[in-house]
Structures are given as C-alpha cells and as structure tokens.
Amino acid sequence: xxxxxxxxxxxxxxxxxxxxxxxxxxxxxxxxxxxxxxxxxxxxxxxxxxxxxxxxxxxxxxxxxxxxxxxxxxxxxxxxxxxxxxxxxxxxxxxxxxxxxxxxxxxxxxxxxxxxxxxxxxxxxxxxxxxxxxxxxxxxxxxxxxxxxxxxxxxxxxxxxxxxxxxxxxxxxxxxxxxxxxxxxxxxxxxxxxxxxxxxxxxxxxxxxxxxxxxxxxxxxxxxxxxxxxxxxxxxxxxxxxxxxxxxxxxxxxxxxxxxxxxxxxxxxxxxxxxxxxxxxxxxxxxxxxxxxxxxxxxxxxxxxxxxxxxxxxxxxxxxxxxxxxxxxxxxxxxxxxxxxxxxxxxxxxxxxxxxxxxxxxxxxxxxxxxxxxx
Length: 375
What we know:
Order of helices and strands: EEHEEHEHHEEHHHHEHEEEEHH
Number of strands: 12
CATH topology: Alkaline Phosphatase, subunit A
Radius of gyration: 20 Å
Helix content: 25-40%
Low-confidence stretches: 152-159
Shape: globular
Mean pLDDT: 89
Structural class: alpha/beta
CATH architecture: 3-Layer(aba) Sandwich
Number of domains: 1
C-alpha cells in the first residue's frame, strides 16, 4: 500500500473486445507462435524484447520504456476456468466476479460501498464513457458518469431530460434480463438518479487544470486526460473506469491492433507524465485488462475469440516485471485451440484490493485466490 498520506487511487482501463495476447506480449522465441500465426504475427525483428523469451508489440514503445523503468507489471495467463468466449458473458464475469451465476453487483461497486458507506462523496467513483460500467454498479452506490468532460457532455445533467432518459433506458436494458423490471426500476429510483447528481461536481475539474503535457487527439487520450483533470482537482475520487476498443479483430487485425496499442501506450505515458508533473502520481495505480485473449491460430487476416490473456498493472508504486508463467503453446496443452488461463483474474483484483486499497478482498471477489505480488 502507498506510504504517503494520500488516499490510494485505482484507474481501470478495459480493453473491450478481446485483446490478442500472442501479439501483445509476443513469445518471439517460440517456434510454435510462427506456426500458429502464418499471417497475423509480429516478426522477431520488430518485437520490443523484454527478455530472451517475450517482448511487446512494436506499437507499445511507451509501455516498454515504462517497463524498463520498473513501473509496469505484466501478469501472464489471466482469466478463469471454462471461458465461454462470449463478449457479454465474459465481461460480466470480470465485472461481477461471478463465473457460475449472473451477478447483480459489480466488484468495484462493492469497493465504493466499503470506501464511502455513508455516500458522503458521490464522486468517489467516476465512470468515463457512454454508459455506466457493470463493474461499478451496485444498489445504493452512486457513481459519477461523464461522457466528455471538456465539453461538459455529462450523461448525468439533471437539466438535460433527453440525455437523462437515454441513460435510464440503458440502465433498464442492462439490468432487466438479470433481475427483472420491478427490481430494475427500484434500482434506478434509489441509485440511478442519485448517480445523476454526481457528475455535476466534475465540472470544476477542467477549470482547475493546467499542464504542459499535450495529449493526442484520440478517444482514449481524451478519457485519460479527463481522469487526470478530476484527480488533480482534488475531488476525492478513488476509483476511475474507462475503456477503449474495439479489440474484436476477426479481420484486418494487423493495422487495427497496431493503432489501438499506439493510442493506448502514448495515452498512458502522457497520463502518468501529467500526474508526475503535478506531483500526483505516487498514489495512482492503473489496471489494464481485456475480457479474454484470442485464438492461437490466426484465421488469415485476424484472430477469433480465445481464453487466457495478459493484465498490465502500471504506476510508480508497482513492482515491475513479469508474474506467473506464459501459458504453454504446445498443441496438447491448448483448450479448444486456445491458451489456457493459469492465473485467476480475481487474484489480480485481490492484490489491488488488499495491497493497494487496503480492503479485505474476499467478500468483494467472492473467495480467496492466489495473489501475484506486483505491489
């Protein structure tokens, strides 16, 4: 846990769509990789080598530089047993920590309830995007939702009835299949409308912000800049959540995947440079994850849904390096043609919760799991 007096802050960046593990953390010394990937592969001469076995995608140079500084931990083989290879179901499992049933509470919603049980700060958690992420949702847990901080494009503006109704309809569509219309409306009346009030607080953040860092003009850079603005404004936010994608690269993967990681890598570097410029990086840790990896065998121009993937944990307090073993690529060790997870994602969460946020992870992740020691 952080040794400063500042409250620890967690930023979660979700790579929506299923990021390709093999072309992100490339096992360049493994001949099977090239056998599996005749078309969709990173040639050995382009890999950003981390050691004599694996390296990063060439678009990830900023991440590679941060790794060399000891600020990036890579956790291999993250996932869970019996992956359904469905975007919706897999993401739901990551969001709720409920692999065997359809969960109704997000893991970070439970975290916010622990951090602020009396709801003294409706901006304890901030969701950056077009809707509230499942990971943050829980009854009686308000979350400040913002779409575009720079233009005050707040989903939660009480005066904008049309946008408010659109958000509420998204809530209904999200929860009705799981818990029924009655509980949905009750959830909305008790939690949704309260959350609508939270984002107005965030309007002061751009006014208080000044920085020499020039972020790129792309979606993820704008989100990370907004997170930096809110963090630097001192509004007491402890949890930030955003996403980027789509990583669902069934076709034309090479160019799309390169651009996705180029935008993310530069955005993350700018974000931490911005915080360091303001002496505000020492209490921030970022988790980067995707709902699953992709198949070991390419399909000619892309890759299909897989299972195991990597998680990245980034920040000044992180113990950089690689954790866990890269899953075996041997044909007999694959499952349905995919790398098999050998590190439960709830163990990654548990390290963040207990060793960073100072919370008991067991009731939040629904069990006890092996914790990689990246903090």
